[in-house]
């Protein structure tokens, strides 16, 4: 079945995503090509969904006094390129041409500092709950779109736990990699 594409990349912007500006980014090192997609999960407070706190967090606008957990991350300045909410809505915080702060200390295929050359995608989720079907279908569509734009990422899809083992556990045991890979292939075949 042929589907109309919902997403398109123009000048580092994902058309089809809601644009929300995060101040937490800088330039990628010169002559650095985008070579990797890193999948994460995040929920604020942990394992609770909705509320808009993740969006506020990535904008440095989270009121730390609103929840005891928030005090444990007070002052952290992080971001991601994309966030996929439980509803399937996609938010873009950082242009793909810029370096978002999602991976931290990390290594992929012996190459350090994954933020330099990767695109970060956060799924609203946790290590202890399944993700929504709509999150998988949107994620697959977004990754297929990114692969068409940045061919070097074709074979390079990793979880945060893969590039920062021992330090990070996301996207966690509920994230279904085979399903994600199958949906990406299916989406491409349908185009
Ligand atoms: Zn992560």
Automatic annotation (TrEMBL):
Protein name: 1,6-anhydro-N-acetylmuramyl-L-alanine amidase AmpD
Keyword Ubl conjugation: no
Matching InterPro entries: Amidase/PGRP_sf (IPR036505), Amidase_domain (IPR002502), NAMLAA_amidase_2 (IPR051206)
Regions annotated as coiled coil: none
Sequence ranges assigned to domain N-acetylmuramoyl-L-alanine amidase in this UniProt record: 22-172
Highest rank taxon of the organism: Bacteria
Record-stated family: Belongs to the N-acetylmuramoyl-L-alanine amidase 2 family.
One MF annotation (Gene Ontology) recorded for this entry: N-acetylmuramoyl-L-alanine amidase activity
Species whose genome carries this gene: Acinetobacter terrestris
EC number of this enzyme: 3.5.1.28
Main localization of the protein described in the UniProt heading: cytoplasm
Annotated keywords: Cell wall biogenesis/degradation, Cytoplasm, Hydrolase, Metal-binding, Zinc
Cellular location(s): Cytoplasm
Root EC class: hydrolase
UniProt xrefs under SMART domains: Ami_2
Cofactor(s) it depends on: Zn(2+)
Catalysed transformations (reactions): Hydrolyzes the link between N-acetylmuramoyl residues and L-amino acid residues in certain cell-wall glycopeptides
Entry keyword Transit peptide: no
